[in-house]
Design brief:
The complex is a heterodimer of chains A (473) and B (470).
Chain A: H1 8-16, H2 22-35, E1 42-45, H3 49-61, E2 72-76, H4 103-110, E3 114-119, H5 153-160, E4 166-171, H6 177-183, E5 186-189, E6 209-214, H7 217-227, E7 255-259, H8 260-265, H9 272-284, E8 288-292, H10 300-315, H11 334-345, H12 348-361, H13 367-390, E9 393-397, H14 413-418, H15 424-429, E10 433-440, E11 446-453, H16 458-472
Parallel strand pairs in A: 2-3, 2-4, 7-8, 7-9
Antiparallel strand pairs in A: 1-3, 4-6, 5-6, 5-10, 9-11, 10-11
Helix pairs in contact in A: 2-3, 7-16, 10-12, 10-13
Chain B: E1 3-14, H1 53-65, E2 69-70, E3 73-74, E4 77-80, E5 90-93, E6 100-107, E7 110-121, E8 125-129, E9 132-136, E10 143-149, H2 160-177, E11 189-199, E12 209-214, H3 217-236, E13 244-249, E14 254-260, E15 270-271, E16 278-279, H4 282-290, H5 296-306, H6 311-319, H7 321-333, H8 337-355, H9 362-373, H10 379-389, H11 396-403, H12 411-424, H13 426-435, H14 438-451, H15 458-468
Parallel strand pairs in B: 12-13
Antiparallel strand pairs in B: 1-10, 1-11, 2-6, 3-16, 4-5, 4-15, 6-7, 7-10, 8-9, 11-12, 13-14
The chains are: A alpha/beta (473), B alpha+beta (470).
Chain lengths: 473, 470
């Protein structure tokens, strides 16, 4: 039990000082995953973890001191790990074995991480509850009847239930921060371009980023240090130098911006009181709090639900039943292969978004939707730029409330889309945002507050979170 | 009724590059199926394109060779459609901001305006075997440039002949600029053609009919001729031309409807979020301009004005870059343009056409030409000599010695042979003395030359015989 509650940093320290072996650590976490099977957070424990742990012990014996030496992690099922299935929680890719490593996988392996398994998710990362997985829903770690959030719900649940100290997820519109908030842990969506997307199954290429779940700020920063950086395989990755994120700044007298529009939107929402508590707490701790304006913020959600489906429709077109995706057995003609394979391969939500995406890109509608959404995105980016001239960081609720009950949002997809109202702005603006656990809702379930910074200012976010939580303890 | 014909061309050419357009796979032809593929060009999940800068440079080079403006900012877009040879189910192409805009190409006496050249990736290839279809992705991701003529501007391409001249010229320029090999048989150059007819003198365009992926220039000529006639007949009968895409069947010599306007595809173009805007510096444009190889038009001027070649000879030499390069190389060693051009056109070209390649070194050819000029080898013997060494590693000089055809101009040797012939052919000699017919004299010269195996100088022999038989 002691091993499971250790942070990644502590695990590494204990392994390097020979107080624990990597094999012991891996064994403990694998047992925990098995024990928590009913939560359906992890789709597969990789069969080579013991072997890898043994190799790692030998390597460490020879003096290896990687930043993640011996640290077990879990990855979302849309990150390619060579030789392992990468299904995106879709029937369509249920047998797809990754033929190469994602850049983030190369990086964590080089620093000595042991990848225990792959985590459940909403199919192709589309959803906010992990209910859209073809392999069953993941349960909230604190209330079995509720969702863990999504789309990276499996990863979040795994960290919250001590199945691993750090897990990787991916974000397009809040898929890391929202489940982090629902599960009471830290979840980072870094700056767009901070982490290579090579080997991440694309949802919406201009918004996708790998995200990090952890129980501590230190672990989160440590992981970012490892996986951030430019990549020759990803033209959209940034060559901006990688900071030493885990060396927090001690003196962080930051000015925290509170967007008045967010205060307005949150009126009457379950998160409203908690948000106010957070602002009070900031003041109490001596942070300067400043009211700012982001008047285009309400446009982020519609902008997101045009851009993301448009790119998704194109990105998911390659899953056509011709090559590696499962082909419908009865299909006889080419048209039938496409139609039948895609009809049975994709789940309902994925189909909905593909249709939405193709609609907004179609001849005659492109200017009215896609082009306009791109223009709005440009405006939102410049509003964030202006806002960050007046403050160092921006704070806002991560979610509108606590985790909702499984099956409680069936009929109208728009209701579920509205869950993303606070998270999508960071994706649209391309800025980093960390959801930190703060407060509880009326059912005693965790809530989160997200801290946004200007592009590549992750270190400021971590430093703030560190200093804020230190005071909390 | 009389009609004006308006022809538009879209020409695809595979760029000459080491690697593919968006990955580092080899850009080659004829390798084992699916041997030059990677996650990127196979469109595997998670793979991302990375632009090959040299492909952009080659596109700029093609543009500059055709007088295009180069866009300082170019954009890649996704053209979405389903087909098994299209791994990602979209082609990375360019719509709104192509690399090259507003060029032109001289066809006979017209400067034909060209709208654009853009860079895109080629698709794979379907192979149908018995009742299965297979896909070879070796070609997927090969850089392709698409050139589109500008029918909105005058003058137009108005006949099949002009279209073929356009394609021939274009091909020549691409080859000379070093941007593409354009081997039509390998599908390295493919043309889409659109044809419309309007009443003579009318300013309003008729309905366009498109024909896609026609292989080979002759087929293009036939397809255009067929389409003009087809439309003429419909219009003459008062019919209406349907806007459609037709498929040219070169075996049957006719075309059939592929798609009509109603079911034309919506490609849902949008900027590819995986690629950044391409910035093309003036510095790079200048560098490419400065390093531009000499182009056919400049060479032709040089051949005619500096070398004194005829237009016909210049065109013949320019038509094949290998021949032209060989000609120029020979001139470096022996600067007699007219003589060398003659040899290259009459002797080298014919053999190259037959064998597909020039199989003689410039050193050997120059030696032969010089030997003829210096009267060391007779012209006919020289041609035989060229045949002997063609495709071998023999040296012309050694072979000439071995065959013993090098001229021996010593007077004693020639006199000896002449006396021998005069003695042997005394009857003919007597006849000449009576009739003074120059034909008879020529016969005797021929006999002497035969006897010397071409080593003597025929002119000198003639002189000697004339003197002797006065």
């Amino acid at each position: 039990m002691e091993i499971l509650s250790l942070s990644a940093l502590e695990i590494r320290e204990k392994i390097l000082t020979k107080k624990l072996s990597c094999q012991e650590v891996v064994k403990a976490f694998v047992e925990q995953i098995k024990k928590c099977q009913k939560y359906n957070a992890v789709l597969e424990i990789f069969d080579d973890v013991e072997e890898k742990a043994k190799e790692m012990d030998e390597k460490i014996g020879q003096g290896f001191k990687g930043k993640l030496a011996g640290v077990p992690i879990i990855i979302k099922d849309n990150i390619l790990y060579e030789g392992k299935i990468c299904s995106c929680s879709s029937k369509f890719l249920k047998d797809f074995v990754a033929p190469y490593n994602a850049t983030v996988i190369e990086k964590v392996l080089a620093e000595g991480a042991i990848i225990l398994g792959r985590a459940n998710m909403d199919e192709f990362a589309m959803g906010s509850s992990t209910e859209n997985s073809a392999f069953g829903v993941t349960h909230n770690p604190l209330d079995f009847d509720r969702v863990p959030g999504g789309s990276s719900g499996g990863s979040a649940c795994a960290v919250a239930l001590n199945m691993c100290p750090i897990a990787l997820g991916t974000e397009t519109g809040g898929s890391v921060r929202q489940p982090a908030s629902y599960c009471g842990i830290y979840g980072l969506k870094p700056t767009y371009g901070r982490i290579s997307r090579y080997g991440i199954v694309a949802f919406a290429s201009s918004l996708d980023q790998v995200g990090i779940f952890s129980k501590t700020v230190e672990d989160n920063a440590l992981m970012l240090e490892v996986i951030a950086g430019g990549d020759e395989h990803d033209s959209t990755s940034s060559q901006t130098a990688v900071d030493n994120y885990s060396c927090f700044e001690n003196d962080c007298k930051y000015t925290i911006g509170i967007p008045k529009e967010i205060v307005q939107i949150s009126q009457g929402m379950a998160c409203q009181k908690n948000y106010q508590n957070f602002i009070d707490s900031l003041k109490k701790k001596g942070f300067a709090v400043k009211e700012i304006s982001l008047d285009g913020i309400s446009l982020c959600l519609p902008t997101y639900y045009i851009l993301a489906p448009a790119e998704a429709a194109s990105n998911l077109a390659r899953f056509d039943g011709v090559k590696y995706t499962s082909r419908n057995k009865e299909a006889k003609t080419l048209q039938e292969i496409y139609k039948k394979s895609r009809s049975e391969g994709f789940g309902k939500e994925v189909k909905r978004r593909i249709m939405l995406g193709n609609y907004v890109l179609s001849a005659g509608l492109y200017d009215a939707y896609y082009k306009k959404a791109k223009a709005v995105q440009g405006k939102i980016i410049s509003q964030f730029d202006k806002a960050f001239e007046q403050c160092d960081l921006i704070a806002m609720p991560t979610t509108i409330g606590e985790a909702f009950k499984i099956g409680s949002k069936p009929s109208n997809p728009i209701d579920t889309y509205k869950e993303d109202v606070f998270t999508v702005s960071a994706n649209i603006a391309g800025v980093p945002s960390l959801s930190i656990p703060f407060g509880q809702g009326e059912n005693g379930l965790p809530l989160g507050i997200q801290i946004l910074a200007k592009k590549f200012d992750e270190k400021k976010i971590y430093s703030f979170a560190n200093s804020f939580t230190k005071g909390e303890e | 009724m009389q009609y004006d014909v308006v022809i538009g061309l879209e020409v695809h050419a595979e760029l000459k590059t080491q690697t593919k357009c968006f990955c580092s796979c080899k850009n080659t032809y004829g390798d084992l199926p699916n041997s030059n593929c990677c996650p990127v060009c196979m469109g595997l999940p998670g793979a991302l394109p990375v632009l090959n800068k040299f492909a952009v440079e080659q596109t700029v080079r093609a543009g500059l060779a055709l007088g295009f403006e180069i866009n300082k900012q170019a954009l890649f877009e996704r053209k979405n459609y389903f087909y098994p040879d299209l791994a990602k189910a979209y082609q990375i192409s360019q719509l709104e901001k192509p690399i090259c805009i507003n060029g032109h190409l001289k066809v006979f006496d017209k400067e034909i305006p060209i709208n654009r050249i853009h860079l895109e990736e080629d698709a794979g290839k379907l192979v149908h075997k018995d009742n299965v279809s297979l896909v070879d992705y070796n070609r997927a991701g090969v850089p392709l440039i698409e050139l589109v003529t500008d029918a909105l501007k005058q003058p137009h391409i108005e006949s099949a002949d002009e279209a073929i001249e356009f394609l021939t010229k274009l091909r020549q320029i691409y080859i000379y600029a070093g941007v593409a090999d354009c081997i039509v048989e390998k599908g390295q150059m493919r043309a889409d053609v659109n044809v419309s007819l309007k009443p003579k003198g009318s300013s309003e365009f008729g309905t366009k009919v498109e024909m896609k992926n026609i292989m080979g220039f002759k087929a293009v000529h036939r397809a255009i001729t067929y389409e003009i006639q087809r439309q003429k007949e419909i219009l003459d009968e008062g019919g209406v031309i349907e806007q459609e895409t037709r498929k040219w069947d070169n075996d049957k010599g006719e075309s059939y409807t592929l798609r009509t306007k109603e079911n034309s595809e919506d490609y849902r173009y949008f900027p590819d979020p995986d690629l950044l805007m391409v910035n093309i510096d003036q510095k790079d444009i200048d560098r490419i301009k400065d390093s531009m190889p000499i182009l056919p038009a400049q060479l032709k001027e040089k051949f005619m004005n500096e070398y004194g070649l005829s237009e016909y000879d210049s065109d013949v030499l320019l038509a094949d870059k290998e021949v032209c390069d060989f000609f120029i190389a020979c001139l470096e060693d022996y600067f007699k343009p007219k003589t060398v051009a003659n040899w290259v056109i009459t002797e080298v070209l014919a053999r190259q056409k037959l064998e597909g390649k020039i199989l003689v070194s410039k050193e050997n050819l120059v030696w032969i030409i010089k030997a003829v000029d210096d009267k060391k080898v007779q012209r006919l013997a020289a041609k035989d000599l060229l045949s002997d060494i063609w495709g071998t590693t023999l040296s012309a000089e050694e072979q000439a010695r071995k065959k013993d055809i090098l001229a021996d101009l010593s007077t004693d040797f020639v006199l000896e042979v002449i006396e021998k012939v005069v003695k042997e052919k005394s009857g003919v000699v007597e006849q000449f003395k009576r009739e003074k017919d120059p034909k008879i004299l020529n016969f005797l010269v021929g006999q002497v030359m035969k006897e010397t195996r071409g080593k003597a100088n025929a002119q000198a022999v003639l002189q000697k015989l004339t003197d002797m038989l006065k």
